[in-house]
Specification:
heterodimer; A: disordered C terminus; B: alpha+beta; five-stranded mixed β-sheet; about 35% helix
């Protein structure tokens, strides 16, 4: 046996929340979504819960809905659900791109958006796109639900805002303007089934020739997936030039803290943050300004 | 607590009630029932050797707890076709020499079938690469696998069978 634990498979949300409410902290009872991280973590003894609560049979937590200017995605929505959605490409191209490059087919068929977020991994590929889309997450417990910005959800390496009795039930974001640019790039050793070396997501709109609502999010280069806030501030409200884009991309490097690991050195990661941020910002600005950005 | 309970599964079309522990994976359950066509490889979702269809979608059975798929229809590669009546994918893998040691073959065929059922019946090479990106072959490579999947897809479209 790789690990000993009990398993609950409730048929509804109340049942799941009731079990989680018995958790006495320190992850004694943990939610189980797709399991593609959890089972690996259990085998590696990175986690040792006394019980898991599967949300696999909880109805109403899976699917994508676009209404009233918001995109709402149930926490149990799988990566493959995102790829098979006819509407998601128009409201979250960066998210669809990251879903396309996510692990392998069997993992995509199983892994969920809530699981990817709650894994807390800095390499979680759905997170950079969701951060630049200004996503919010809804946490639900027996005592009610609360919604907060995804950017405020991560405190540190695998340190997150949610309490042990809360489930991440929904992810939502405002439908971006049709004119807005929204891009993701995954740098990895292979195109498929690879862990990200550097992930970059960029979102940007344009208003009267000025860059508006610029967002930059960087994965696998800090203890958490991180917005490059200082770099964003340098560009907001300005007409971008190759020089300003390059300066902001250099600032983004100063905002991350990459590590050396088996996949890449810290120095290489920093270099790629500079290059890839510059590349995506340039591509976004060229698309928006129609060449006015000195393409 | 932590005791086995009876779980109903439909395996290759046959209803089975199996006793499973809470921490038991579908891979362990299936191999415990002598479904040795389901292979155990990396046991962490990297290699795809253990892939089976659960309600029509390919999943890694090593990452799936049996209790969480109670009531599901599980299809292994043996459920797709037999030696006497092979599925078009199985036949194409033989005809195109797409298997060497054969350890990854059941998972590759299951992943290909899942793509044809859920994503596209007329896959491009990129579609095939994406669909099979979670299956590792350490013998030979993927060229003949893509040849076989493309040929089977064509035969299945022309034959109009979804099997």
């Amino acid at each position: 046996m790789y690990a000993e634990f009990d398993l609950h498979v409730p048929e509804d949300l109340d049942g799941a929340l009731a079990v989680l409410a018995e958790s006495d902290g320190q992850g004694a009872i943990m939610p189980l979504a797709g399991g593609t991280n959890m089972i690996v973590d259990l085998r590696a003894r990175n986690v040792a819960p006394s019980a898991l609560v599967s949300i696999g049979k909880v109805p109403g937590m899976r699917g994508i809905e676009i209404a009233g200017g918001r995109v709402r995605m149930g926490g149990r929505t799988t990566v493959s659900d995102m790829l098979r959605s006819a509407e998601l490409g128009a409201v979250a191209p960066s998210l669809v791109e990251s879903a396309r490059l996510f692990a392998g087919q069997m993992v995509r068929n199983t892994a969920t958006v809530a699981g990817n977020i709650c894994s807390g991994s800095p390499a979680a590929d759905l997170v950079p796109p969701l951060l630049v889309l200004d996503a919010e997450v809804t946490l639900t417990s027996r005592s009610g639900s609360r919604t907060l910005a995804l950017a405020d959800f991560f405190h540190g390496y695998k340190q997150m805002e949610h309490r042990p009795d809360e489930l991440l039930t929904e992810v939502s974001w405002p439908v971006p303007l049709e004119s807005a640019a929204n891009l993701f790039y995954k740098l990895a050793r292979r195109k498929g089934d690879a862990i990200t070396v550097v992930g970059v997501a960029v979102a940007m709109g344009v208003e009267a020739g000025k860059c508006r609502g610029v967002r930059i999010a960087l994965g696998s280069v800090a203890p958490i997936v991180k917005r490059a806030i200082a770099a964003e501030k340098m560009l907001e409200g300005a007409a971008l030039t190759p020089e300003s884009i390059d300066a902001a991309s250099r600032t983004a490097v100063e905002e991350v803290h990459p590590l050396d690991d088996v996949r890449a050195s810290a120095g290489y990661r920093s270099h790629c943050v500079h290059v890839l941020t510059r590349r995506l910002l340039t591509r976004a600005w060229e698309r928006l300004a129609g060449g006015g950005g000195q393409a | 607590m932590n005791e086995a309970k009876a779980i109903r599964l439909t395996i290759n079309g046959r209803d089975r009630d199996v006793g499973a522990l809470p921490n038991e994976t579908l891979l362990e359950t299936l191999r415990g029932l002598a479904h040795f066509e389901v292979k155990s490889g990396c046991e962490k979702g990297d290699c795809g050797a253990c892939a089976v269809l659960v309600d029509g979608q390919a999943v890694d059975s090593c990452l799936t707890l049996t209790w969480t798929v109670e009531g599901a229809a599980v299809t292994t590669v043996s459920g797709l076709g037999t030696v006497d009546a092979p599925h078009p994918l199985q036949k194409a893998f033989i005809d195109r020499g797409a298997a060497q040691c054969g350890y990854c073959t059941p998972g590759l065929i299951i992943a290909a079938q899942s793509m044809l059922d859920n994503d596209t019946r007329d896959p491009s090479e990129d579609d095939m690469r994406a669909a099979l990106s979670g299956n590792l072959c350490r013998c030979t490579g993927y060229t003949k696998v893509f040849d076989a999947v493309g040929e089977a897809a064509r035969i299945m479209r022309e034959g109009g069978e979804s099997s």
